[in-house]
Amino acid sequence: SQKIEQNSEALNIQEGKTATLTCNYTNYSPAYLQWYRQDPGRGPVFLLLIRENEKEKRKERLKVTFDTTLKQSLFHITASQPADSATYLCALVSGGGADGLTFGKGTHLIIQP
Amino acid sequence: KAGVTQTPRYLIKTRGQQVTLSCSPISGHRSVSWYQQTPGQGLQFLFEYFSETQRNKGNFPGRFSGRQFSNSRSEMNVSTLELGDSALYLCASSLGRSGTQYFGPGTRLLVL
Hints:
The complex is a heterodimer of chains A (113) and B (112). Chain A is mainly β.
């Protein structure tokens, strides 16, 4: 069966360090993968999109990698700040977009000052 | 541009009732998707509408239905509410089908 797995345990990182979050998937052939941030009581906010033929994407302090052989995406936040504390969700689009987006359950990131 | 708006923001219903939620997408966006979010199941896809037609449907019972109007606004209806329907219902719009999702603030539904 199809599965998207993100670390369900909270990730505690010290301020200034790099936070790395993982998104693993099985039985998908994603056309592209997206990362979103969600704060408590609010809807998710789009951060980055990476396509199947791209290895890496960057935006300011954020970096996403996509390894279709390992079936894994890594999401990095460098020079992390307490304001980066939130839940981060990955989402896959497969089937040429015909199947819609499927979200992982998210990883709760806590940046400690 | 104004973001995605959802009404109402909070709702309390009792079992057996029905509920209608409304979503206004970002101007120019033709695709509207609905999601249910619960602590246990995470964000689950309900359905996607594009140009007034349902294009994708998640694995939810027929009690969950929706529609999209010619101005791209969308409504979601849940009939015969069950306790397990208590959740945050999120609407998202995008330019094209299954594109980058721009989420609204959600409607928090509590079924008693």
